[in-house]
Amino acid sequence: MLDIFFAALNPMLSLFICMLIGFLLKKTNILPSNSSKIMSKLVVWVFYPALSFSTMARHFTLSTLKIHASNISMFLVGLAAAIGISILIAPLFVKEKCYERGIYLYALAFANSGYMGDPLVQAIFGDNILSYYKLACIPLSIAIYTWGMSNLVPSDKSSGSFIKKIMNPPLIAMLIGCLVGIVCGLLVDIPDGVATAYDAAFPSFIIGTLDSLKSCMGPTAMLLAGITVANYDLAGMFKKKKVYVATALRLIFIPTIIFAIMFGVKELFNLIFDASVDNTAILLIFFAIATPLGLNTIVFPEAYGGDPETGASMAMISHTLCVITIPIMFTLLCTILGYNTWLPI
């Protein structure tokens, strides 16, 4: 069990240190005032697309479609459960239908499945399993940029078609990567000593450049998280009592309920259809629902005249506490699913 615990703890500590560095750099005014905007553009337009494209181009093939379909189905169950739970619980934090309730709705439904989930899956399992995780998260991304954003952006300021809302550089890069992976798998012969068709099809300098860029995604995203929360009063963020309850729900109780629901659905599906759905999706969805709150509850309220301090408090407290909750929860989940030694997948 200890090897599983430390397999999750080590990357968590690395990401938290990056967040702490970003926080200190901003608080000491070493970084300029526009540093968060520049870094966010680098993450969204360069580092994250490089990670999405290279991962899918290297590991997505026609032979993996059945597994992807099974994982997506299980993720849809988890997504529906997360949204349903948030709709039930959010009114307990804010009784009136107002903008702040929307922040709690979003925070309880969606974790930082991308900027923290991706680096963790990559660090613990490697690029191959990351490709399964990223594709399974597509329904989650669609829900975030539609229903999720509707709770953070006032209705009179929301614009754009459905396609425009969900199509962003990382998602576009991932879809292109899937296409490249299929084409390479069909047309390229893999010579001895080469891992995948993607590695055989492209020059080494292109592959090396993309691999270097994608390795920057996790650290830069956490630097950005630290820089963003540093714009707010640290003492004030830790004084919001309701945020601690919401954080406990976000990191512990909601994931536990979703795991139970998914496990029950998996067993029911296997019983009814005489199928064999394994525990991979349950293990992977952990990183989509048990990670801390992302930065959208800070960025969007700030942009549309809402109060960003609630979101900033949630982000700061959840990112701090998750350093210990994620390794513990992950170890318990692996043990329950029967993975007592590493590597589970």
List the helices and strands and how they pair.
Elements: H1 2-27, H2 35-59, H3 65-93, H4 99-109, H5 117-125, H6 127-136, H7 138-152, H8 162-166, H9 169-187, H10 197-201, H11 204-214, H12 217-229, H13 234-237, H14 241-273, H15 280-289, H16 296-303, H17 309-336
Specify the CATH architecture: Up-down Bundle
Radius of gyration: 20 Å
**How many structural units, i.e. domains?**
1
**How many strands, what sense, and barrel or not for the largest sheet?**
none
CATH class: Mainly Alpha
Low-confidence stretches: none
Q: Return the average pLDDT rounded to an integer.
A: 88
Number of helices: 17
Structural class: mainly alpha
Number of strands: 0
Q: What is the rounded distance between the termini?
A: 15 Å
| SSE arrangement, N to C | HHHHHHHHHHHHHHHHH
As a percent range, the share of strand residues is: under 5%
Shape: globular
Fraction in helix: over 70%
Enter the CATH topology name.
Na+/H+ antiporter like fold
